[in-house]
Amino acid sequence: MWKKALPFVGMVMAECAQVGLIILSKQVMSKGMNNFIFIFYSNILAALIVLPASLLIHRSERPALTFSTICGFFLLALLGYMAQVFGYAGIYYGSATLSTSMLNLTPGFTFVLAVVFRMEILDWRSSSSLAKSLGTVVSIAGAFIVTLYKGPALLMIPSSSNLSHQQLMLQQPNWVLGGFFLAADCVMSSAFLIVQASILKKYSAELIVVFYYFFFVAIQSAVTCLVVERDLSAWSLEPKLRLIVILYSGVFGYALQVGLSTWCLHQTGPVFVSMFKPLGIVISVVIGVVFLGDAFYVGSLVGATVIVIGFYSVMWGKAKEVDNAGRSVEPIGQKTPLLQSSSEET
């Protein structure tokens, strides 16, 4: 029973860690911390944490590093770095609820990019392809709703009660800008997943790939900081809130979250892991309303619901595709469990 329950607990912890990272990073960046410097500190700390674990776990099976592999790691880090830059910009202008809602666009954009680069076959006669296509369109429609429309407040703190109905109907310009930054984050994340899948087929040591990812992102962000931010005082970790948030982001927001997600993925498969992504919306709403005094609006509820419906449609199509592929290669009477997948599919 414990073995069956642990993946559920692990994914809930991973989603809580991600929402915590979104909320805390918004707090320090709203107080003046440069997002490029925040990315550097977080990734270099995560790299130092992952390095000993990667050397220990992959000590017996460590594929040889070639120049092309290193270039692949650098490209993977570049895509991940751009995703982080856009993501933190979106968090700064938006909210935790908007961020967690928009992150569910990633599977749909991944499907679109896979079709564009001919890594995915679009067959209109297949129910799985139709589900993924329809789910992508629905998710994008939900993103427009949650970004452009606010509506009346469902849960609102007293200090927000002075806002007029006209102010509540349409989102403020910063919120819209945050939504577009988060959409760009999802596109970069989708490209990241495609490149990552290609790399893992050739280099199967996952934690070593994760270490190089963090390491190269830290280098890229450091170079950006030296060009963009000339004020050395911007690197200061005062007040102490900056240090606390960076420690949280490196340990929990990056290393622990990636570790838990990877472990759960190996135990149950990618579909199971993906099913927990919409949970972040619920967690962010609860934390935002109860602890931060944020308001929760009808537009956020409707848009997030539409995005989640599209998300599950895409995931259902992918799960059905994997399940059908498993049945086609197995003897009659044997079935591949829905929530399991081969390492190559992972």
Automatic annotation (TrEMBL):
Domain EamA: 22-147, 180-314
Protein's cellular compartments: Membrane
GO molecular function, one term: transmembrane transporter activity
InterPro entries with a match to the protein in the record: EamA_dom, EmrE-like, WAT1-related
Keywords, in A-Z order: Membrane, Transmembrane, Transmembrane helix
Membrane topology recorded in Swiss-Prot or TrEMBL: Multi-pass membrane protein
Primary location recorded for the protein, binned into one broad class: membrane
Membrane-crossing segments per the record: 5-24, 36-57, 64-84, 90-117, 129-149, 175-195, 207-229, 241-260, 272-291, 297-317
GO cellular component: membrane
Keyword Cytoplasm in record: no
Family indicated by similarity: Belongs to the drug/metabolite transporter (DMT) superfamily. Plant drug/metabolite exporter (P-DME) (TC 2.A.7.4) family.
Protein name: WAT1-related protein
Species for this entry: Quillaja saponaria
